[in-house]
Design brief:
mainly alpha; two-stranded antiparallel ribbon; 7 helices; 2 strands
């Protein structure tokens, strides 16, 4: 389902690009759909490989589900810069791409592809490594260390903020720092999205 939704997401993002270029506005219907795709993606990621944060199966829905432990919210921008739309998704976001490439394993995949055309054998980056450690602890202790979950959530917040910026959904440049939680990130002035809440998973 997400594979096909992301194809539609990319097509609509191209349409949004030209709309912003002409009107300085992100069409509301496209924005709501694209937020829904990212929200669905986050719920699926939170369930297995991006956090291993819950035993509850993610719902098949683009809408926000207040009863599901993983939520993503994003405010629709009133207006966007016509000039930034030309450069922020490739030039301005480049430093972040290098950082989250380490988080997600994309950096190693690119290196492997260039070196020996073997991108499939790249692993899953820092997030995958930390989630694997969490899985071992859960297997033997039945507990999810709070500090480890906070770190994993911080890395995921970073990834989604960059995704939001790179797909033209905000003018706010993602902060070059980890958000370890402890507050409603949607209320932060430099955070265009809210990614949470992040309760400890059920034992």
């Amino acid at each position: 389902m997400l594979f096909f939704l992301w194809i539609v997401f990319l097509v609509l993002s191209v349409l949004a690009f030209f709309t912003i270029l002409v009107t300085a506005r992100y069409p509301r219907a496209i924005f709501d759909f694209n937020v829904g795709v990212q929200r669905w993606t986050w719920r699926v990621g939170y369930y297995p490989y991006s956090a291993l944060g819950t035993d509850r199966y993610p719902p098949f829905s683009l809408a926000d589900d207040p009863n599901y432990p993983a939520r993503l919210s994003m405010e629709h921008p009133q207006s966007l810069s016509r000039g930034l739309v030309l450069v922020k998704w490739w030039l301005l976001a480049l430093p972040h791409y290098l950082i989250i490439g380490v988080f997600t394993g994309a950096a190693l995949a690119g290196y492997s592809q260039v070196r020996d055309n073997n991108a499939w054998a790249y692993g899953s980056g820092l997030i995958g490594l930390l989630v694997f450690i969490a899985a071992i602890v859960l297997l033997f202790a039945g507990l999810y260390p709070r500090g480890l979950l906070d770190l994993i959530m911080g890395l995921n917040r970073w990834v989604f903020r960059v995704s939001t910026y790179a797909t033209l959904m905000t003018n706010q440049y993602p902060p070059l720092r980890l958000d370890m939680g402890g507050q409603d990130v949607s209320q932060s002035a430099d955070a265009p999205i809210g990614l949470g809440p992040d309760p400890l998973p059920e034992s």
